[in-house]
Amino acid sequence: MKRIIFIHRSNLFLCLFIISCLCCISACSIDFGSSQEEKMKNVILNDLENRYGEEFEIESIYRDGDGYKAMCYPANDKELKFSCLYGKDGSLGYDFYVGALLAREETDCFRSSIGDKLGEIYVKGTYVLAISEGVPNRTNSNLSICDLIKKGDYSIRDIYDIYPINSIGFRVFIDKSSEVYSDDAESEYDVFAEAVNELVTKYRDDYGLNIFVSLEIYFLNEEDYKVVVEYFKTGKYEDSYKSVINCTKCLIMEMGTPTESVTEKLWLTKTDYVAKKEAFNE
Asked: How far is CA 132 from the centre of its chain?
């Protein structure tokens, strides 16, 4: 026999009132969060358009501490993704649009030098320049770069004349399971050394800069290789790319032109490179 529960009329009204309040609070919270995110999207897009004179789109946005981090791209160039950070009050933390432009130029050059000598590889250049506010001795020059881009009449040399650099970096992901990959450490070293030398020569001749090149080289199985390539193409959370691959085999080295602050401590000889690769295979 079913048990029937009777609620006093006054208690029924109280229960309905409480439920209504909870529903309103929940709805308001959802609407607030959604409206705040949309508000920040508009703030970011308007700020980028004012700074560079072109339209942008947002791939993703999420709360990061007291601010919002977004992955953006120019409306006419979806492949050129870059991250930016804004305070919850709409203030600029940084944006990597110019850094992404430079990184693509560097990556194309470096990747072209390597060609198909290492089989299936994916190269991701790191950003050497962030546009930000309130950075001593850099803010004015950074913003003048933005003005050049906004006018649409600039070259890579123009940017480096304003903001000279002494280093660039690349993450190189190698599909070690590919049929065309030859696990020959000595040949690999020669390929990287040749590509770096070509880049160093280009920067010296074209931009009047002496640079060194930092390399992070990952040797991945087929599954991880596909995941990391898709990850960078999607570009939602760029700072955590290591979380999507199961790889502890990373070889780090530097080549190029030493500076006062960067010695040849990490300059690996061919013998060093071969020894590290052999340790990976143990």
From this structure: 16
